[in-house]
C-alpha cells in the first residue's frame, strides 16, 4: 500500500471519529433542574486568649439566580445573623456581635473565655436560612516541639534563599492529635517582621500515637542575605489544632495541588457545619521558637 492510500485511510478515520463524537452531543432545552436555595457559609477558628471571630456568607448554588433581584449577591457578608457560642462543659453562652467596619462578627477575649480541652458549639440563624450548628473541642496544648536543624538548600541567582527547618514533635499518648508549623523571618536591618512562609505544614499522629513525629518545614527568603544572617532571625510557631482545622486546610492543599491538572478527580472543600457550609475549628499556640543569636 502506497503512502497516498495510507494518508487517505488516515483522513477518513479522523473524519469518522469526529462525526461519531459530534453525533453524541445533543442540545437539551428546558432542563428542569431542582431549585436549590442558598445556605449559610460560616468560618470561625477559636483559640484561648484570642478574639472570637466569625464570618458569615450566603452560598451560591449553581442554578440559583444571584443578581439584582436576589436578597444576597455572591460572597456578600450576611450582616443580620445571630451567632451563639456555647461552652458545653459549663453551659455558659454568649452572642457574637457584628462589626460593620471589619465585616465580621467579633467578640473580645475578655467577654467570653475559650478554655483548653473544652468543647464548644456554634449556632447561627439568619432570616429564612436553615439554622446551622457545629462543634469543636479545643486542643489541650500538651505536645512539645524541638528544633533540630535549619538547612539552606541553595542561594539563587538573585539572592533568594530556600530554607528547610527540621525538628520533632513529642506527641502525647491521647486519642488523636494534629499539628501545624508556621514561620516568619525578621528583617535584619529594620527588625520588622516579614512573613515569608506562604503556606503552613500540617501533621497528624496517625500510626504514631504517643511517639516522636519528625517535621520538615520549607521557607523561602526572597531578598538578599547571607545564610548565617537569615538563619539567625527565623521564628517558628508550633500549634496544636483540632481535627476540623486539620481536615479543612488539608482539603485546601489538595484543591490547590490539583486545580491545574484536568485529569484529576474533583476535590471538595471540607466542612463540619450541619445545615450549611464552612468550618468551625480550634487551635492552641504551644510554642514560639526564636533562632536569633
Structure report:
With 293 residues, the chain is mainly beta. 15% of the residues lie in helices and 38% in strands. The chain has two domains: 159 residues; 97 residues, Immunoglobulins (Immunoglobulin-like, Sandwich). The strands form three sheets. Strands 1, 2, 5, 6, 11, 12, 13, 15 and 16 form a nine-stranded mixed beta sheet that branches. Strands 4-3-7-8 form a four-stranded antiparallel beta sheet, with no helix packed on it. The longest helix is centred in the N-terminal third of the chain and has 21 residues. About 3% of the residues have low confidence.
- The SSE order reads HEEEEEEEEEEEEEEHEHE
Helix content: 10-25%
Structural class of the helix and strand makeup?
mainly beta
Largest sheet: 9 strands, mixed
Which regions have little confidence, pLDDT < 50, spanning 5+ residues?
66-74
Give the N-terminus to C-terminus distance in angstroms: 79 Å
How many domains make up the 3D coordinates? 2
From the alpha carbons, calculate the radius of gyration and give it in angstroms.
26 Å
Query: How many β strands by DSSP?
Result: 16
Number of helices: 3
Look at the structure and give the mean pLDDT.
80
| Basic shape | globular
Strand content: 35-45%
Amino acid at each position: 500500500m502506497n503512502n497516498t492510500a495510507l494518508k487517505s485511510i488516515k483522513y477518513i478515520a479522523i473524519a469518522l471519529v469526529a462525526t461519531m463524537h459530534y453525533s453524541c452531543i445533543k442540545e437539551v432545552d428546558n432542563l428542569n433542574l431542582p431549585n436549590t436555595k442558598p445556605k449559610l457559609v460560616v468560618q470561625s477558628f477559636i483559640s484561648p486568649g484570642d478574639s472570637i471571630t466569625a464570618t458569615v456568607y450566603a452560598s451560591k448554588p449553581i442554578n440559583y439566580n444571584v443578581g439584582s433581584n436576589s436578597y444576597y449577591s455572591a460572597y456578600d457578608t450576611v450582616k443580620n445573623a445571630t451567632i451563639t457560642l456555647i461552652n458545653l462543659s459549663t453551659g455558659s453562652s454568649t452572642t457574637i456581635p457584628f462589626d460593620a467596619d471589619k465585616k465580621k462578627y467579633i467578640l473580645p477575649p475578655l467577654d467570653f473565655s475559650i478554655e483548653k480541652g473544652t468543647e464548644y458549639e456554634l449556632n447561627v440563624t439568619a432570616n429564612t436560612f436553615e439554622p446551622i450548628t457545629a462543634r469543636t473541642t479545643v486542643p489541650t496544648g500538651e505536645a512539645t516541639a524541638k528544633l533540630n536543624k535549619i538547612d539552606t538548600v541553595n542561594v539563587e541567582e538573585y539572592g533568594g534563599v530556600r530554607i528547610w527547618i527540621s525538628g520533632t514533635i513529642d506527641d502525647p499518648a491521647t486519642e488523636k492529635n494534629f499539628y501545624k508549623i508556621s514561620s516568619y523571618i525578621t528583617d535584619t536591618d529594620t527588625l520588622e517582621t516579614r512573613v515569608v512562609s506562604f503556606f503552613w505544614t500540617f501533621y497528624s499522629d496517625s500510626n504514631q500515637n504517643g511517639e516522636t513525629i519528625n517535621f520538615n518545614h520549607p521557607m523561602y527568603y526572597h531578598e538578599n542575605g547571607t545564610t548565617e544572617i537569615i538563619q539567625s532571625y527565623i521564628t517558628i510557631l508550633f500549634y496544636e489544632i483540632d481535627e476540623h482545622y486539620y481536615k479543612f486546610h488539608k482539603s485546601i492543599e489538595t484543591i490547590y495541588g490539583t486545580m491545574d491538572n484536568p485529569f484529576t478527580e474533583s476535590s471538595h472543600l471540607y466542612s463540619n457545619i450541619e445545615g450549611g457550609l464552612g468550618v468551625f475549628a480550634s487551635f492552641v499556640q504551644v510554642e514560639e521558637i526564636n533562632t536569633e543569636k
